[in-house]
Amino acid sequence: MARRGRVTVRVSGRDRLRRRLEDLPEDIGQALRKGVRESAEAVRDDTKRGVRVDTGNLRDNVGIEYEEDGLVATVGWHEDSEYYAVFHERGTRSIPAQPALGPALERERARYRARLTAEVRAVLR
Question: How far apart are CA 95 and CA 115, in angstroms?
Fold first, then answer.
């Protein structure tokens, strides 16, 4: 979850679907991208609501970066200046952990598959 200066999680399309995407109609690919985008935004918004607020910097800078034509989304703090997000997520000797990103991801994990399925079904109707 953490690299130096970054605290992020990835929300990505199902690997098997991504490999087969070339064979699928474009509207199915767009539906999958929409599902990934909605899940990433849900994780971002949930994280903003749950993050510990001091100056508001962490709350205001939860971001999303998209890769692989929108099938992969990385949610979290992407800038080196937000390195301290990991201290809030995991805690230190003097700061108790108050995770926001991890719990947001877990809450969305339960909805992710249903979200993708609903988007694809909407196209197929």
Answer: 36
| Number of domains the chain is built from | 1
Q: Which residues, 6 or more positions from 58, have their beta carbon under 8 angstroms from its beta carbon?
A: 51, 52, 77, 82, 84, 85, 88
Q: For residue range 48-73, what is the model confidence (pLDDT) as tens digits?
A: 999 989 889 999 999 999 988 888 89
Q: What is the pTM of this model?
A: 0.81
Neighbours of 72 (CB within 10 A): 16
pLDDT at residue 12, rounded to an integer: 61
53: left (phi over 0), alpha (psi -120 to 50) or beta: beta
The gap from C-alpha 53 to its chain's centroid, in whole angstroms, comes to 20
CA distance 67 to 125: 28
Q: 52 is in which domain, residue-wise?
A: 2-124
SS3 content of the chain, % helix, strand, coil (to 5): 60, 15, 25
